[in-house]
Amino acid sequence: YISSPVVVNLSDLLAPIWTQGLTNTASGNTGAGTPNVYRWNTETSGIDRGSWEEVTDLDFTISAGDGFLVYVYAADFGETNTGDNLMLEVYGQEFGSFTVNTNENDGSDGWTLLGNPYPTSISFEELRASGIEDAVYVWAPNDATGDGGDDTLNPSGSWLAWSSDGSAGLGDLTDGLIAPFQAFFVENADGQSNLELNFNDAIKTSNFPEFLFKQAPRNVIRMELAGQGMRNSAWFSFSENGSIKQRVSGDAWQLEPMSSDYALLATKKQGVGLMDIAHFPASGDLEIPLITEVTRAGTYHLTVTDFEAHGKDLYLVDLETGESVAITENMRYEFSINEAAKAPTDPFALLSDDPRKTSVDSHRFVISSKQQNQVEPVDMPEEITLRQNYPNPFNPATVISYDLPEQSHVTLQVYDIMGRYITTLVNDQVPGGQHQVTFDAADLSSGTYIYRLQAGNVVLTRSLTLIK
User: Fold this and answer.
1) Distance CA 466, CA 451 (A)
2) Higher pLDDT residue, 149 or 388?
3) In sequence order, which ranges of 79-132 are alpha helices (DSSP H)?
4) Measured between alpha carbons, how far is 232 from 265 in angstroms, rounded to an integer?
5) From the CB of residue 246, how many other CB atoms can be counted at a distance below 10 Å?
6) 132 pLDDT above the threshold of 80
7) How far apart are CA 424 and CA 413, in angstroms?
8) How many beta carbons lie within 10 A of that of residue 70, not counting itself?
């Protein structure tokens, strides 16, 4: 993901690397084949693959704030591939002050790919305008963050996110700084579109004093998955504004990896999706699904690299082995993955239908506020059962209970009496046993609704009544 700090023709900038499927390519390249240079369309509604526009003509002048996705082929580095870098060079006067408008579409349909237009780093905290979600995303092909162990270099690449809920920032994109030549994604907040972002000297980090304030105590944990030469991390924070089933200020999505080989670590919020950075409640019992997905089978370890959790006992529970490990600043848990995720063979298929990671159906780990051996044993149910919600009638919330004789993929959804979809309460791999989920209908009108449970091939339905 690249940009330019000066006015330059795209064909000149990319002259040192192979380009194809385009007109006006550098000498010796070809106009045949699949294009390997793309832009993000900020006018197309939605976040599907159609938002990626092929740049079919390299005779194109890069404007201030433009961001591009460019695939670079291994053959560019020669047959020996010694690891030497290829240099993309530009010369000229850096851009001055200017304004860029974000996507014309509202909320999560409104993603914008921008680029740092200066030869110095810029601060997302200073750039971010009201109406932009407080998260920024940068793809790092050779992410070198981590715990300094045997996986310091991460050639599979990682998304580096940064978010701030108005207090201390979180994420692997250090201090939310965006490097020169770096392109990055931002997202419109719900109800917002076509927002103005102001690029000027004030957002350049070279003008900032260094750390003239004390950082407030944080209640955060950073966990890292590493092994087989790959690595990825997830951040989670605990606060009164946190939620297990809603996206809140400071949350950042887990985006789809852009490499055919990858390791992925993320938390999951009920009915929301996978999070790279997530804020959960500071009080009450917690059971947070922790997603691990890798494309290379073998031995991996989970470690805690940042630990500032105050007064909260948490445990990493392995649902496959039944082991429970206290999450502390020295935690290290080693395990094996025998069945790896299928790596895509077509690199251009990585321009997925949604930049957010959505294709994980199960999880092996949970982060729990209860140690595994502290949970009272119960008799395993003999059959799949969907129980009547309680209370019923209700206002505004009710509890739905169901039983599973064994681990199954469970979908629990709510519909109105006409069969129109309302919401999904569960869509995950769930271990055998007795389970409960709360349905909050505060935003719905009085009436009768249907809740439908699918576990494996079994489908069960019941009705509930909301009275306000």
Assistant:
1) 12
2) 388
3) 124-127
4) 6
5) 13
6) yes
7) 4
8) 17
Could you count the other beta carbons within 10 Å of the beta carbon of residue 197?
19
Q: Does the pLDDT of residue 207 top 70, yes or no?
A: no
Encoded tokens for 322:
């039944």
Instruction: Give the DSSP per-residue string, 120-182.
Output: S-EEHHHHPPTTB-SEEEEEETTB--SSSSTT--BTT-EEEEEE-SSSS-EESSGGGEE-TTB
- For residues 19 and 29, give the distance between their C-alpha atoms in angstroms, rounded to a whole number: 6
Element (H, E) at 115: strand 111-115
Is 254 exposed, middle or buried (CB count within 10 Å of its CB: 0-12, 13-18, 19+)?
buried
Taken in order 159, 145, 116, 73, is the CA torsion positive or negative?
A: negative
Asked whether the beta carbons of 137 and 185 are under 8 A apart, the reply is yes
Closest CA to 1 of 406, 299, 351: 351
- Segment 74-80 mean pLDDT: 72
Check if the beta carbon of residue 334 is closer than 8 Å to that of residue 301: yes
| Amino acid letter, residue 185 | F
Question: Quick one: pLDDT at residue 161?
Answer: 92
> If you average pLDDT over every residue of the chain, what do you get?
83
